Amino acid sequence: MEEVTFRVFRGEPDVDGDPFGEMIDYTVEMDEGMVVLDVIHRIQAEHAPDLSCRWNCKAGKCGSCSAEVNGKPRLMCMTRMEDILEETPEGEPIVVKPMQAFPLTKDLVTDTSWAYEMNKKMVPINGPDEFDWEFKQEEADRIQEFRSCIECMLCVDTCHVLREHQKFDEFAGPRFFVRLAGLEMHPLDTESRIPEIKEDFGIGYCNITKCCTEVCPAGINITDNAIIPLKERIVTEYYDPLAILAKKLGIRE
Amino acid sequence: MICKSMLGKAHTVMAEGGAAAALGNKDPRDNWGIHFRDTMKGGKYLGDWRMAKIHAQQAPDRIRELETWGAIFDRTPKGLTNQRNFGGHTYPRLAHIGDATGLELIRTLQEKGVHMGMDVYMEYTVRKLFKTDGKISGCFAYDRNDGSLHVFKAKTIVLATGGITRCWAVCSGSWEYTGEGHALAYWAGAEMGDMEFVQFHPTGMIWPPSVKGILVTEGVRGEGGMLTNSEGERFMFDYVPDMYKDEFADTETEALEWVSEIVEGKLATVRRPPELLTRDVVAKAINSERDAGRASIHGGVYLDISWRDEEEVKKKLPGMYHQFKELAAVDITKEKMEVGPTAHYVMGGVKVNPETQESTIPRMFAAGEVATGLHGANRLGGNSLSDLIVFGKIAGEMAAVAAANIGQFLPIDEAEINEIAEETLAPLNRKDGENPAKVVEDLREMMQNKVGIIRTERLLKEALNDLNEIEKRANNTFSGSSKIYNPGWHQALEISAMVDVSRMCALAALHREESRGGHTRDDFPNPDYKYWGKINSVITKDKISDGKFTMNIEHRSYPPIEDELRALLDSKDLQEEE
Lengths: 253, 578
Known about the structure:
The complex is a heterodimer.
Chain A: E1 3-13, E2 19-29, H1 36-46, E3 66-69, E4 72-75, H2 81-87, E5 94-97, E6 104-106, E7 109-110, H3 113-120, H4 137-147, H5 154-158, H6 160-163, H7 173-184, H8 194-198, H9 211-215, H10 222-239, H11 241-248
Parallel strand pairs in A: 1-5
Antiparallel strand pairs in A: 1-2, 3-4, 3-5, 6-7
Chain B: E1 2-3, E2 19-20, H1 32-42, H2 49-68, E3 83-84, E4 94-95, H3 101-115, E5 121-122, E6 124-132, E7 135-143, E8 149-153, E9 157-159, H4 180-187, E10 192-193, E11 198-205, H5 219-222, E12 226-228, H6 252-263, H7 279-291, E13 301-304, H8 310-316, H9 318-328, E14 337-346, E15 349-350, E16 364-366, H10 383-404, H11 414-429, H12 436-450, E17 454-455, H13 457-474, H14 487-511, E18 520-521, E19 536-545, E20 548-556, H15 563-566
Parallel strand pairs in B: 1-5, 9-16, 17-18
Antiparallel strand pairs in B: 2-4, 3-4, 6-7, 7-8, 10-15, 10-19, 11-14, 12-13, 13-14, 19-20
């Protein structure tokens, strides 16, 4: 049977909260059709029961097992070993690290509580009180793309505004622009979130490099379908002279 | 709220097909009475008719309510919530969003809760419920992130902990599904009902080995998916039970006509394909085909949706398309899937008052999979998500009203706190021992082989003995001494719950000497209408002497059904003597 070697980060934060640990090699046997998460589970079962790793559905639907495999942010449960072996140079181990943008908890587990705090700042849906809302499938399609987000935070992990510049206090990040786009484009929602998207959520920091879209395991066109339309709404609201004039004349709120 | 995983990641995300509610948007012939009848019939008449009535009546408004909280279900041409066909439902009834309905429910409720200011303790595991003067007074939990120990005082507690199917080797459940909710209630002295009834979902993935058990939504069959064996036969025509003969097609021509009517958006005028029989029937049929030597290459059967338009398949079943493409390298728009039964759901659980969801322990409520009553001997697909939203609301409201009327928190016994704290930390204080993963693996293999789809007295007795051995090994595991996010420690602590829920299941199965719904005995292959058809098992913890307990089982019926509701049922199914 074929063997594979994983080089896995093992460690905890030091007193300053910075990751402190080492890369440790584990070699296990492989079965047909395994994904990266299977290998991690086998390492736990055979070598290291205390290796920390978060997972849940093992089918790409809960977004728990996010990690960086060979330097690329991905879901471990949806990354097939076949593909990983193909991209890894012969004789080299497969490198698995936790998401680098978030504070480390231990080994492959990070603290993503920022996301839950950010979520509280969103203004929720506000539509009619009556039941039986009517809207067309074409209107639903646009938002359903955003609703398929599994909150894996891989987009946040890869976004340079957060990963390199750590603008966690001023920038909502791709996941929450997806959420905001879903609310803003809801056919029966009556709120406007444009001022806070510009000011509090700092959408201006995004320079549309599309890194988030590339890593999204749900296949959401984050940049093209969520972020750019929100940026356009801000342009219309704040910088379009015709729109500003219309607003002054009371033609448009 | 205390949750075992992070908020929004619980196993409901894997619910795919939809939530059943007789909205009548897709087929105006539907109404709550037919939903009630389908639920009772699917449960082989062992369900609590009072819960089945409340569920069928209230599910439509719960779906409409979710919409006002931001859920975006698929639409009908008129712009209302669309509905899809599912096994055992007479009409298209399941509100859905592609094949990711569970994710939509969980996200909608998560957002609603967050904006209501709900406090959440994430990645905490509850290990004990405290009682004071016979009433619930709080619980003990530990934080999986840092291993810190916590006592929560509570005026009321709602269990909404899901199921137990991680106790089987081939299951659709995640690591969470180790049955703590069931075990906590049992340990606290609650009555546990119907624990012999475990649903094996007929279609789980079977290849490659690492994905064995992962769910393939019933929605595939709802959209026209056909089941075939190694000889290319649509074998389900051979397995239509008498009670369903009038409702299902008996020729391929009729079955195909039904699908084409549905695809064209018409109301069905012919009978539905037998692939849409209830899950217990389809799972056993697949099992029989396998035993008869007509299995697919990897030991299951084939499920084929590739005959439908490629874009339609991708639109209606996007999750399945990706799941097979990425995990099995199979393109379901062009190739057949291979599927086989997977442990999916437990119909049994905490006995509750149907009107309030309060358990037999005052101030403790239960809703969803951890409770019992609605589904009887077999749950219909789609009735789980609707169960959650109907009875979740009732349990929450009733618990809130009860809590508002309670003045003081009850005191919790210090000695009990110290005892559970010590027990929780014990695995960390050992110097060496077995890897808990190995003990869990052996338990799951044993349950798969001895308390699986087909059961016998001999195997069930062996299972109960084996569980005693596994319990001994569980007290001797070691997984390092770190308290920080130590999965081995977490697993070591979960085994005690797994052992006791497995025991409940094996014990109840041993007593029920008949076959019905999710319980099949090779030594008693037929349903018994006179006795077992009217009676439910009830398990409780009994004190036998100082500090020693035993599992006690008795059998009991629900009150007689009201005449008006009885009139909605198929009288010949009830097999009553004149």
